Amino acid sequence: MGLIKHLSSKKFFIFNLVLLGALFGFSLAFLSFSCSAKGTGLFSQGKTAQAQEAAPVPKNSLEVAQNLQIAFKAVADKVQPSVVELKTSTTRRQQLPNGIPWEFFFGPQDGEGPGRRGEREYRSQGLGSGIIVQTDSKTNMYYVLTNYHVVKDADEIEIEAYGERSYPAKLVGQDERKDLAMVSFTTQDKHPVAELGDSDDVKTGDWAIAVGNPLGFMSSVTMGIISAVGRTNGPGGNINDFLQTDASINQGNSGGALVNIRGEVIGINTWIASNNGGGSVGLGFAIPINNAKRTIGEFINKGEITYGWLGVSLAEADNDIKSALGVNGRQGALASMVFQGSPADKGGILPGDFITKLDGKDVRGVQQLQLSVGDLVVGSQHTFTVVRGGAAVELKVKIDERTNDVASDNAKLWPGVMILPLTDKIREELKIAKTTAGVLALQPIDKTPAAVMGLQRNDVITMLNGEPVKDIAGFYKALREKAGKELWFDVLRGESKLETPHYKR
Question: Residue 237: what pLDDT?
Fold first, then answer.
């Protein structure tokens, strides 16, 4: 029975009266709103409600919307078949606590007796996305680009391609610094290869379409814009300069494609910023595809990435440091320390140089310079523009290969300590007199010359090789001109004045 049939006749009458009144009131309000939107009252200028006409719809508005819809559908049709889902399986071990008879429930653990400490082995499953970027027609092999964190430590990898076709896959290569990896699978089935775009042409406000497998939902397509470019400080020390987008990205999108309105891959979706437990809040980040183009060939040919090495320890310069170095308002990266015998050392780059250009292109900051140097070909020569003592200097540097051994040899890092200017805030916190001139030493790096000399955190360096140090510019000037083969400091440590042992190189 309907609602009205459940009501008494009296209630039925009242109900209808209220309903008619509500409908009349709604209609009157709607007409008043429509008329006032045109700049008239309901009965203004002698016109009645019946005389008011609806605002004309622009003739091409529907056509524009339909064309945009067609464009998005074309992007989906083009990109979806080249984006795959990665299913990973990883063997993990969990340490078992003492005193609990796990063997009673799970059987003997690693051959240990009852009640002893052991380990439990279990399988961890993971999901991610990947992009088919290359194929070998002779071997029927397809190469899939994804994130390092998607396949990290995986024992088994399975590819599920568009159309729900599954294939076993194997790891080709991986790199933690760029958070990139490559896997391959072989099949006689035909799969399209993604078209790679130019991420250097991407601008804030451009359309952005994300394609992947969020939370296991295959071939999902979401749309937004590029919110920003050149974002740094990604998770886990990732050295990429990310594209930021508000296209919805969730867990499982990692390794999937971020494409432009032409369906060209401009980025690899990698991480999200979220305060709600990992769900999308419109803050997604993708590795620019140009950061990965050289990587693709290196993974296929060598199984690993070769990085160029300059041999400097870079630091972001805040306004106080920039002011002290005379580079206010300029972008760049501070070469705070230089590895002895490195390409930078041989090419003439010195501690305190503020690097502003690489081969004529502006340096935006530390992370961007690290990425650019890493992509330089080993053995190639490049021009670095630095500001030294207020003047621009161009230096030619021949790039070496970066290895963990050379990049972690702190004994060659000169001088081995980062310094800060004595700002009013630092003086107040450390109770340093305003009349004291010098620079503040941060924690010396282990095994470096500064550490060997016994320099300590929060020492105030007042002299370098007998030369008074008034500020940061004075420190680096004295380091350049006075510390040829020997180095020592006069420092103020608390209320004590000390001279460090001499270091000979």
Answer: 72
- DSSP for 398-464? E-EE--HHHHT-GGGEES---EEE--HHHHHHHT--TT--SEEE-PPPTTSHHHHTT--TT-EEEEE
- Pairing verdict, β 180-186 and 165-175: antiparallel
Q: Which two structure tokens, joined as six digits, stand for 28?
A: 């009157």
Domain with CATH 2.30.42.10 in the chain: 308-413, 415-504
Fold classification of 308-413 is Pdz3 Domain (2.30.42)
Least confident of 5-14, 137-146, 379-388, 406-415: 5-14
The string of pLDDT tens digits covering residues 43-56 is: 344 444 444 566 66
Q: 415-504 has which fold?
A: Pdz3 Domain (2.30.42)
Placement of tokens 């161009």 in the chain: 394
Which homologous superfamily is 199-302 in? Trypsin-like serine proteases (2.40.10.10)
Among residues 273, 177, 276, 275, which one has the least CA distance to residue 231?
273
Tell me if the bond preceding 351 is cis, omega within 30° of 0: no
Token digits of residue 43: 């009965």
> What is the reported pLDDT for 277?
66
Encoded tokens for 429: 């916190």
Residues of the chain with pLDDT > 90, as a percent, come to 72
SS3 label, residue 471: coil
E-only strand ranges, 96-140: 119-136
Residues 6+ apart with CB under 8 A from 432: 422, 426, 460, 492
Instruction: Give the residue with greater pLDDT, 1 vs 90.
Output: 90
Q: Which residues are catalytic?
A: 149, 179, 254
Whether 457 and 329 have beta carbons less than 8 Å apart is answered as no
> Tens digit of pLDDT for each residue in 372-381?
999 999 999 9
Residue ranges matching CATH 2.40.10.10 in the chain: 199-302
Amino acid at 244: Q
Mind listing the pLDDT tens digit for each residue in 366-411?
989 999 999 999 999 999 999 999 999 999 999 999 998 888 899 9
